[in-house]
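Lecture 7 notes: from sequence to structure.
We start with the chain below.
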Amino acid sequence: MRVNGTLISLDKSQTLFDFLQSQSIDINTIAVERNGEIIPRSTYQNVVLSDEDTLEIVRFVGGG
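Predicted structure tokens for the same chain:
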């Protein structure tokens, strides 16, 4: 799987939610695009990842 341009090998089948937790990523401060499609946060627990997926994870940054 490719995440923000970096290859990552999945050791086991897991959901997007489980993957983000394993990476210590706060789901409340990000948006995720999988294979060119924005994934609604409410479906993270239902999206099963595969080694063929490409994820782009974008963090929200405050400022002014």
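Points to note: The chain is about 10% helix and 30% strand. The chain has one domain: 2-59.
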